[in-house]
Amino acid sequence: MCGIVGAIGVNNPREYVIEGLKNLEYRGYDSAGVGFLNKKIKIYKDVGSPSHLDEILPKNITSDVIISHTRWATHGVPSKKNSHPHLSMNKKISLVHNGLIDNYIDLRNFLISKGYTFYSQTDTEVIGNLLEYYYLQNNDMLVALDKTKANIKGSYACAIINEDYPDTLFMMRKTSPLLVGKGKGFNLIASDASPMVKYTNEFIELDDYEYGYITKYDIKVFNRNNELVDKAVTIKDLESYSHDLNGYPHYMLKEIEEIDTVIKKLVTAYYQDNEYQFNKDLLNDLKESDHIIFLGCGTSYHASLVGGRLFENFNNISTTKYIASEWAFHPTFPGVRPFVVLISQSGETADLIHCQKIIKKKGFRTLLITNTPGSTLSRGATYTLLIHAGVEVSVASTKAYAAQVALLSLLSGAINNDKKVLNDLKDTIRVIEYIKNELKDKIKGIAEEIKDHENIFYLGRSFDYFLSMEASLKLKEVSYIHSEAIPGGELKHGPIALVNEGLPVIVFITDPTTANSMRSNIEEVKSRGAKVYTISTKDLSKDEDSLVVDNYAYYLSGVAVSSIAFYLAYYVSLAKGYNVDKPRNLAKSVTVE
Length: 593
Ligand code: AGP
Hints:
The protein is 37% helix and 23% strand. It has an 8-stranded antiparallel β-sheet with strand order 3-2-4-1-10-9-11-14, covered by helices on one side. The protein has 2 domains: 3-241, Aminohydrolase, N-terminal nucleophile (Ntn) domain (Glutamine Phosphoribosylpyrophosphate, subunit 1, domain 1, 4-Layer Sandwich), CATH 3.60.20.10; 251-575, Rossmann fold, CATH 3.40.50.10490. Helix 13 runs antiparallel to helix 14 (420-450). It starts with a strand and ends in an 18-residue tail after the last helix. The protein binds 2-deoxy-2-amino glucitol-6-phosphate. 2-deoxy-2-amino glucitol-6-phosphate is lined by residues 297-300, 344-346, 349, 352, 395-397, 477, 586, 590.
């Protein structure tokens, strides 16, 4: 979603913001803009990419204080007027914003009654005008920030400049992420660390309702009671934020090809000296809980389906698995001692932050499974487990999914101190390497055959069904083909009505207990004209199957063969000429509900 990059005192502000915005492109955007102070506030913005912004921005910017933004439209169409930065009516204040202001219509009407005029359709313009309205009452920007915060409802991360403060960049935050990068003789601000890691490795994360300012030499943060807060500095290294393609043409391909390494790294992180390395209190909490609620969105929700089934089958713990945005509005806490597992690659997903607030109010304990240390969700969780996948730039999540599933399987093993999963994971690594080295051409061939279809079915049962859901989402995201994942047993309860001549049906058969039933499903769709592509394991395979891999433990399909689904989506997108790393309308980090 929207990305913020700002700085004060940095040597080449132009280069910093353009490069920084490019680093945030993975979050999704439709327009981009820059604002800086040169006696007056100057703004350059337009629909399009940071590269386009680079073309329209003056070559020399000498300003000390600068803010910039990539917008992902929510209120108002993508247009120059709706792009950020926005300027207050009297041109005193300009700001960039990530988030959603729920009460912007009321505030807009209030400001109109005070003589304000609005030029955009955005909720953000309300914040700028409200800040200016309060600022003009007493010429104190901190008071204006405090009053504005008190009146806006919703989520916001804002970087703000004021014409009267040429040496200061203001900021405030609730729900949407905002980080300060601590420099020597300069300070930085951004939505995540990636634009700043070239300049510093010291970071301060703003918490909800915190606000303040940065100057060249100072960082001041205040809490919601206006008390100065002594913020902890965290260290983040350049390597883990590297957006280097390492010779790959696309991030999605690079990230799929990293899956085997990620799984190896994960096993080493959580199993050393013949012992599982999980926090003992976490394991006790899981064992003592009589019900575990899994929450996630999109791909992370698909991983949570696997996690729930593992805990039920192997640990005998009852679970429910919910899409976070569904649970948030009607939360339920089954059992007497529920425990909640939240799964989020980014750690910044607004729907989950909403859930976390509800859980905290109830006082229940939580585990976050994430790729992002220090993220908003991580700071709010009782425990955090990292998936150690390294930065995932492609909007379509791939290696993070495989790592989430692998981590859940290790955790399930650790609860019972059952070490079988370690060997099972070793088997999956061999399968992943085989797919990478031997099957890509075949997958490309299937991609060519299916690319012009409007509808595609994925079929599987149990763990293969969960994988089918992820495979189907991936295909939708990057190829814009409509696809459905259907549990084999459900076919005849409705979806089979859609099967017609030539419909591509991709079938996963990797589970001995469901293999026979899946073969019957294949006959059902074939006899109605479907073109079937079967992915199977050696012992369950038939000659006509499209892709056959070595045997592995059936509950690990999300690790072992998810790369087949990812390569397939990747090659279809490429064959159709789409921007595979930045699919339309999607954002990497979904920071609004
Ligand atoms: C995955 O390919 C998607 N882009 C999306 O479904 C994603 O998994 C979802 O938005 C959740 O994100 P999170 O894991 O960062 O919370």
